[in-house]
Design a protein that fits this description.
The structure is a single chain. The protein is mostly helical. It is about 80% helix and about 0% strand. It is built from nine helices and no strands. It has helices at about 5-25, 30-40, 45-50, 55-75, 85-100, 105-115, 115-140, 145-170, 175-195. Helix 1 packs across helix 4 (about 55-75), helix 5 (about 85-100) packs antiparallel against helix 9 (about 175-195) and helix 7 (about 115-140) packs across helix 8 (about 145-170). The longest helix has 25 residues, at about 115-140. It is elongated. The N and C termini lie far apart (about 45 Å).
Length: about 200
């Protein structure tokens, strides 16, 4: 991150422009030249901070993925404390869906993560880290659950939620219905293990 205000403003403009262009035309049409033009900076300024479009999209994706993980973990913090584990799970799914709807470029960035081998690892790494953070909450609800099983369940849930929210983003008219179905899928998947507690 640049130390001077002018540099920070340039980086913010570059990231905002890339997000807009991703939303408008998709990852394949994105170029550093179009980003620089939209951002109102010269190409040399863009290259001072980013070597290519992958680095720009990676930074955007990292920010969104960390925010996604954060909202999930915040909602799930009540697992094992709340009287019913289902409500924190519902809140987590709804918060992640709301983030997708509210965050400009989030859908396009998710598509870029899925379509680019250079970016796929970022999505995978964040999903794995989120699952590792969620597993202890599952163990809090059901301490008899084996740690390895809790990790596998958490990873399955994280990937399922991400994939079905990706589907819902592409089905705007049916998005809310798909999100409610996602809640049911996750709750019914977790019930055999968490209701045993």
């Amino acid at each position: 991150m640049p130390k001077q205000a002018r540099g920070r403003a340039a980086v913010a403009s570059i990231l905002a422009a890339a997000s807009e262009l991703l939303e408008e035309a998709g990852f394949d049409s994105l170029t550093t030249a179009t980003i620089a033009t939209r951002a109102g900076v010269n190409i040399a300024t863009l290259y001072r901070y980013y070597p290519n479009k992958f680095a720009i999209v990676r930074e955007l994706a990292q920010s969104i993925e960390e925010e996604r993980s954060g909202v999930a973990l915040e909602a799930l913090a009540e697992l094992g404390v709340a009287s019913d584990w289902r409500e924190p799970v519902r809140r987590a799914v709804r918060a992640m869906a709301q983030l997708r709807r509210d965050r400009s470029g989030a859908t396009a960035i998710r598509r870029a993560l899925q379509s680019s081998p250079e970016l796929w690892h970022l999505d995978h790494d964040v999903n794995a880290a989120t699952a590792t953070a969620i597993a202890p909450f599952l163990l809090r609800v059901n301490p008899a659950l084996a740690e390895e099983r809790a990790q596998a369940i958490a990873l399955t849930v994280v990937h399922t939620v991400a994939s079905l929210l990706d589907l819902a983003a592409g089905e705007r008219e049916r998005a809310l219905g798909l999100e409610r179905e996602l809640e049911l899928v996750v709750i019914n998947y977790l019930a055999p293990e968490l209701d045993r507690a």
